[in-house]
Amino acid sequence: MMNLGLVKPAEVVELLCVRLRQERLIQGMTQAEVAARAGIGVGTLSNLEAGRSVAFDSVVRVAMVLGRLEELELLFMPQLESLDDILRYEQGAQRQRVKRKAGDV
Questions:
Q1: CA atoms of 36 and 100, how far apart (whole Å)
Q2: Please, are residues 66 and 27 in contact by the beta-carbon 8 Å criterion?
Q3: Which site from 34, 49, 54, 99 is most exposed, i.e. has the minimal number of CB atoms within 10 Å?
């Protein structure tokens, strides 16, 4: 696994695009097949595999088609390692906005 803490965002995008393409090929699917099943255009899938901007919805749809939705669901899963973490998470879930601190612009 790559240490994602010491790389640039573009490098993470490139790595994930390579993995996406490899997963599609391992499953023996063409871009047209994945796009059709995901309900997106072939150009959109091509852009996604090339690291160009696409709607996040398209990423989710492709993950679903490739059977990788579970990994995507873990993306922003809270890390609850202590009782304090759980309490902070529960309190934060009730909050709608983050208040600005004095001096913030």
A1: 45
A2: yes
A3: 99
- Kindly report whether the global pTM for this prediction surpasses the value 0.90: no
Note whether 61 and 39 are within 8 A (CB). yes
* The pLDDT value given to residue 53: 94
Contact between residue 34 and residue 22 where contact means Cβ atoms under 8 Å apart: no
DSSP string, 7-62: S-HHHHHHHHHHHHHHHHHHTT--HHHHHHHHTS-HHHHHHHHHT----HHHHHHH
Q: Residues 58, 44: contact at Cβ < 8 Å?
A: yes
User: Terminal CA-to-CA distance of the chain, rounded, Å?
Assistant: 38
Predicted confidence at residue 22, as pLDDT, reads 98
Eight-state DSSP code of residue 19: H
Q: Read off the pLDDT of residues 45-80 as tens digits, 9 standing for 90 and up.
A: 999 999 999 999 999 999 999 999 999 998 887 777
- Three-class DSSP category at 23: helix
